[in-house]
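Tokens for chain A. Residues wanted.
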């Protein structure tokens, strides 16, 4: 998954970013609302982690403005304010959840998973399709009697493809989703991850098809 963190506390931002990257997520970091606005105008995110008190304004104004502009990306508000009225206000403005500072990183991760499950319309974590069982939380892929522990970007790539079978993803689109804004990515890197997934899916009914000049598509061969 690709996240945007909007947080001006460098120590907290570093801790969150490091933890999320260990879990295999791609995460961009904005230190103020101006940068956050530039990110959401140019990038696509699965989730936004939004601080309230920022150097150039109130994060809730950013949330309200973007919800009015049809931004549907789930948002979890990070707030130091514990008053019920503040939490209710954030939810009324369009936040999907909130967490009060200081918080345990395991709780933040659990809230992220819960919000993303609600967005997908399912409480299930395991996906069964085409003779394959995919558990993104455990990071496992089961095909027949073989269980494979996926590497982080293999896992995120399969999440993208399996969420939209039949959809064509260009190399640039995949790069945008699998790597952060400041990482240099070659076409070969995407080919490597696609190649690894193909091997893992070899004995299933799922196939990653290359469409020359267009990109890749996950096909289900009944």
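Reply:
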């Amino acid at each position: 998954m690709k996240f945007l963190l909007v947080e001006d506390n460098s120590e907290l931002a570093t801790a969150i970013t490091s933890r999320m990257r260990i879990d295999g997520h791609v995460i961009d970091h904005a230190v103020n609302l101006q940068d956050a606005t530039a990110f959401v105008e140019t990038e696509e995110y699965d989730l936004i982690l939004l601080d309230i008190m920022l150097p150039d304004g109130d994060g809730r104004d950013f949330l309200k403005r973007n919800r009015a502009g049809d931004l549907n990306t789930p948002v979890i508000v990070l707030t130091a304010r514990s008053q019920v009225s503040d939490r209710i206000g954030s939810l009324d403005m369009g936040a999907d959840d909130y967490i009060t500072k200081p918080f345990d990183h395991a709780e933040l991760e659990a809230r992220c998973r819960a919000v993303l499950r609600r967005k997908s319309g399912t409480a299930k974590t395991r996906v069964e399709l085409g003779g394959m069982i995919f558990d993104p939380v455990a990071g496992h892929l089961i095909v027949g009697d073989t269980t494979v522990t996926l590497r982080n970007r293999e896992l995120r790539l399969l999440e993208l493809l399996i969420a939209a079978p039949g959809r064509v993803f260009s190399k640039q689109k995949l790069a945008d989703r699998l790597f952060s804004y400041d990482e240099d990515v070659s076409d070969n890197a995407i080919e490597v991850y696609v190649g690894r997934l193909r091997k893992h899916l070899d004995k299933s009914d799922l196939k990653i098809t290359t469409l020359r000049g267009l990109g890749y598509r996950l096909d289900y061969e009944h």
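The helical segments are 10-22, 33-42, 59-68, 84-92, 105-120, 152-163, 171-178, 187-200. The radius of gyration is 18 Å.
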